[in-house]
């Protein structure tokens, strides 16, 4: 083994030196871990589950993220088909599903989300098999509009968290706002005034600063850490599964969109770090794997996962594409997920700290949507599509009582989250409105 030459960190395959691999792997862990567990914390609050179930939900998020990442990095060969992409990506629980999951959790709880997630996984597999036929329905104008709507719809969640959480007796207190603003200030300063590791870990460090400050305000309760076990595996079907048609439709549509959106992340990875476009078989293997890993995740009690753009950014910036390094990151995430005391520690983070840290994340999601939209010409037709889709999506979700006379399933699909309406309206208008050139010709 010692005489065998080690691979470069800039090679896709091979084993680099551990001393080189470990810090680069930790870089990926730091970049994704807060984003991976935060959706579980948010949804557990909406679903009002017990502290022990909250710990299990966080554990499952980390364990399934690790498994999904390993499947993408090291595909399983099935005949001529590879389940996975063999590309350097990191998977994790996605904020893109949070608005719809919040709506589902209010009515059907965690089982309703997990049932819809299984259906979504099937949708992703179908999209993977027909990706190049379906892709034309989701140009950057459409995906950008959807991502922008997701970011906008998450703002109230962040603000309520900054105020301490709507269920808290101290909601809106100056202490909550002070801690939230200190956390936000720390994240913002680190993001804009530092480089390297400090910039990369800005959210994690900002949360640590806010956490320390919150201790002085007696906001942290460590009792859950003492009662948590040392090692624990995710429990199969612990939360149960419920297939509610309206929830399945809402999440299924999002899975289709995110399957197409994943092409952007894989393309950014290969073009930015490997100097080539992704191959058809890589994309198909990646998206089918995305669907299957989400179905598996639902059985283990994990919320929907997706590719992590922040880790794509690390790969394209550093050009470090070695799969063993990202595999080591996945193993670290897996180990963290098997330790209930670590998950219990994460449950002690005050909501005001989470709000202060994630409001910048939600802002970046919205701005990512705007950037995608702006890659296309902002003529009258395209601005109408974006404006009407967002207006109807946000407007109806904020005035969901306007759908009171409709059946309950209509309110669940279209009234609880702006994402579904924004998506449907954007796709419909893009298919039906005349193209700019045709419209000009018609007027002349």
Distance between the termini: 75 Å
Would you identify the regions where 5 or more consecutive residues have pLDDT less than 50? none
- Cα Rg: 22 Å
Count of separate DSSP helical elements: 19
Residues in helix, %: over 70%
Summarize the structure.
The protein has 444 residues and is mostly helical. The protein is built from 19 helices and four strands.
Can you tell me about this structure?
The protein is mostly helical. It has helices spanning 18-47, 51-73, 98-129, 131-134, 140-162, 174-193, 196-200, 202-216, 223-227, 245-273, 280-299, 309-318, 323-337, 340-347, 351-374, 380-398, 408-415, 418-432, 436-443; strands at 76-78, 81-83, 91-93, 305-307. It has 19 helices and four strands. A hairpin with a 2-residue loop joins strand 1 (76-78) and strand 2. The longest helix has 32 residues, at 98-129. The radius of gyration is 22 Å and the shape is globular. 51% of the residues are buried. The mean pLDDT is 85.
């Amino acid at each position: 083994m010692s005489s065998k030459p080690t691979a470069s960190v800039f090679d896709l395959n091979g084993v680099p030196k551990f001393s080189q691999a470990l810090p680069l792997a930790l870089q990926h862990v730091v970049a994704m871990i807060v984003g991976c567990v935060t959706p579980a914390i948010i949804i557990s609050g909406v679903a009002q589950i017990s502290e022990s179930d909250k710990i299990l939900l966080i554990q499952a998020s980390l364990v399934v993220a690790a498994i999904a990442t390993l499947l993408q990095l090291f595909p399983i060969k099935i005949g001529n088909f590879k389940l996975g992409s063999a590309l350097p990506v990191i998977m994790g629980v996605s904020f893109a599903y949070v608005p719809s999951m919040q709506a589902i959790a209010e009515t059907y709880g965690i089982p309703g989300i997990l049932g819809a997630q299984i259906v979504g996984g099937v949708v992703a597999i179908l999209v993977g098999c027909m990706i190049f036929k379906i892709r034309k329905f989701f140009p950057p104008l459409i995906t950008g509009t959807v991502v922008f709507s997701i970011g906008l719809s998450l703002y109230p969640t962040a603000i309520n968290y900054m105020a301490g959480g709507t269920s808290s007796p101290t909601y809106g207190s100056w202490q909550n706002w002070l801690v939230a603003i200190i956390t936000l200030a720390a994240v913002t300063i680190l993001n804009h005034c530092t480089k390297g590791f400090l910039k990369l870990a800005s959210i994690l460090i900002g949360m640590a600063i806010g956490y320390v400050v919150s201790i002085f305000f007696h906001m942290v309760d460590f009792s859950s850490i003492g009662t948590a076990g040392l090692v624990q595996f995710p429990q199969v079907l612990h939360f149960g599964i419920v297939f509610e048609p309206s929830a399945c439709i809402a999440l299924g549509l999002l899975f289709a969109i995110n399957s197409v959106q994943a092409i952007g992340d894989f393309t950014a990875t290969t073009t930015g770090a490997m100097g080539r476009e992704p191959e058809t078989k890589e994309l198909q293997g990646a998206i089918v794997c995305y669907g299957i890993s989400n179905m598996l995740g639902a059985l283990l009690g994990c919320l929907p996962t997706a590719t992590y753009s922040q880790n794509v950014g690390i790969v394209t910036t550093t050009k470090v594409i070695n799969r063993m390094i990202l595999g080591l990151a996945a193993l670290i995430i897996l180990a963290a997920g098997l330790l209930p005391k670590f998950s219990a520690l994460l449950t002690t983070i005050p909501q005001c700290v989470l709000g202060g840290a994630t409001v910048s994340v939600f802002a970046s999601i919205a701005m990512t949507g705007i950037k995608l939209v702006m890659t296309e010409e902002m003529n009258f037709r395209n601005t109408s599509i974006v404006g009407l889709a967002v207006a109807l999506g946000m407007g109806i979700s904020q005035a969901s009582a306007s759908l009171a006379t409709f059946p309950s399933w209509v309110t669940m699909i279209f009234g609880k989250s702006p994402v579904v309406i924004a998506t449907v309206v954007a796709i419909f208008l893009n298919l039906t409105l005349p193209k700019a050139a045709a419209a000009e010709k018609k007027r002349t």
